[in-house]
Fold each of these.
Amino acid sequence: MATAKQAADFLKNARDVYILSHVYPDGDTLGSAFALCRMLQKMGKRAKVLCEHTPSPRYAFLQEGILEEDFSPETVVCVDVADESLLGSRLQSRFGGKIHLCIDHHASNVEYAGLNWIDSRAAATAEMIWELLPLLEVQGDPQIAACIFTGITTDTGCFRYSSTTPRTYRIAADLMEQGAKAGEINRAMFDTKTRSLMEIERRATDSMEFFYEDRCAVMAVTLEMIRLSGAGEDDLEGLPAIPRQVEGVLAGVTLREKKPGEFKISVRAQAPLNAAELCAIYGGGGHDTAGGCSLSGSLQQVREKMLEAVGRHFREKGIL
Ligand SMILES: [Mn+2]
């Protein structure tokens, strides 16, 4: 495993850099990618960000003013991508096995790159990008700071998740001093929703059911609900946080229908539960507080399977 210094030394010598984000890009993968892109361009290098899916318009400010150039990559870097398969099929077939550097904070990272700088203590990959600023001898500026701040605030749920450390706040303070407009970014990320998001939230919360003495909440997001709400992918990313918000719930499970008979399961857990361990029962992974796995079957079958796993995990942790 590489250190921050090794990653920085590699980037100093790198040329013509492609920076890859993960599928259905969130604020951390995009904030990290565009911050790094700006930093490399400031160093006089050619750099661009690639993503399998078009980012939500609410992230448009991250790339404002970035130089767009056409060039072939000499160096390929992944940010916030735990596994090559998370690049999406197009980027994976193009760059799979050819990633030079991976910068990531997922404990589940499989170290697929030539150089892997992984720090699972970081609340966001963007914290690691912040660490690169002095190492690359790049002067921070309001745009870079806004990108990094966005990555951190989105991955910590506006500094609310337990992944948030004293260091997270210190980094955020530094970014504000560099010109990141925290209030504005947080309002855009957390206090603004589309009408279609409101519609899908209404339908999804209506489906919520409680189990195991109300310590597990299960919510469904079906293709039908998505269609009726007019919800897009951006509207769906925040939904898994909802079941865990209910008082007393230790395990919040969201069953999201991806295709008929195929579900992506998101789990949000509170200690002593561990979302990654719970999801590992069905071959998934994640962090202590958030994890995911995939299951096929009808909604009822998938719900039963997940309840079995939750029950088993509850017993392992001495809760039942
Ligand atoms: Mn992240």
Note: Residues 28, 80, 105, 124-125, 155 surround manganese (II) ion (CB under 6 Å).
Amino acid sequence: MEEENEKRRVRIGMVGGGAIARAHVVGYRSVPLLHGLDSVEPVFSVVADATEELASQAATKLGFQSHTPNWRTLASSQDVDLVDIVAPTFLHSEVAIDAAEHGKDILCEKPMAASSGDARKMYDAAMRAGVVNAMGFNYRRLPAVLQAKKLIDEGALGKILQFRTSFMEDWGANPEMPFTWRYVSKLAGGGAVADLGSHVIDIARFLIGDLKSVCAAQDTFIRERELVEDPSKSGKVDVDDYTCALVWFESGVPGRIETSWSSVGRKVFLDFEVNGAEGSLYFNFERPNELQFYSARDPKDRQGHRTIIMGPQHPYGASFSFPATGSGAGFQDSLNNEIYEVLNAVVSSSKMKPDFYDGWKVARAVEAIQESSRSQKWVDV
Ligand SMILES: NC(=O)c1ccc[n+]([C@@H]2O[C@H](COP(=O)([O-])OP(=O)(O)OC[C@H]3O[C@@H](n4cnc5c(N)ncnc54)[C@H](O)[C@@H]3O)[C@@H](O)[C@H]2O)c1
């Protein structure tokens, strides 16, 4: 047992040492300072990557005490409290189920799994084990997104009538992007709809509620890509570059979810608009500190969209590195906020949202969208 005043150590086992792993590590390092979580000490215990060389490089780069080319030793290690899954999507379910069976708390990156069936198995395993099961839908941790939720819940928009969201990037439009697991449905669970769409489906559920049914169109613009190991050969892409889905929410609200990684000129264009009977909200991640709010309750001679700039008076705003209004919250802040919630949940053995239930519901929505695109019919989620 630790002394009462001693810091609670949370020993992290990270599976994957790539791009998003670095942002997670920055999060663990920043949170005690930025969020005043000084009773918790994240410990960078062990990192796993695909080979001994990659794992060793990851340990050096990210500052882990040890490394392994075999994630199974990590998931069962006595030196790990929290398994952080930042590996390619096709590994998420196997790692998470093994970690849950060893009683480890888990943070899993999106999309949760390569199929909703696998996501459901992860959820069941976490429920059986009673471990923390956090999903990495970080965009809902942005102050402006949480402020939007607050305004909707307070009734500032009146009855919600309609919802639109997009997540557009453009790296997929480059035909020279080589063939990787991201272009294989059974490994990635889908293309843009799983990779980017899972974030905005989460935001849709967070703000408006569960999806009831979907009617979607999907297309693949580049159907073959060169293999990394042999550019004279190519792999067949069987995932979407573009998806657009009309949706009905359980609440009776209609809407649209659109996503693409081939929208030339768009970088991280994640936006949403909520229209109610008495007001509207608009958010765009290109201006992450701003929330546009229009109230039909304002006097007629001054109605118009106002820009609310995020600051310490907004959710998580006091944890900006410089806590002044407009001083900025971006991608890393959303992850810091997520990791703050995860560490809190681990040390207090409490539940946190979004969790594996949410991840599974999002995975099911992705699958319903794909089914609808194939059948050209409305599909229940
Ligand atoms: N929340 C976000 O906005 C966000 C952003 C980027 C990626 N992601 C998600 O994070 C996951 C990883 O994406 P990334 O961009 O970091 O990919 P990446 O390719 O940069 O990194 C993946 C890492 O996993 C390693 N890996 C491969 N096989 C492994 C194995 N058997 N055991 C351990 N490690 C293995 C790779 O070598 C690599 O280091 C994906 O599921 C992706 O969807 C989320």
Note: Residues 14 and 47 are 5 Å apart (CA to CA).
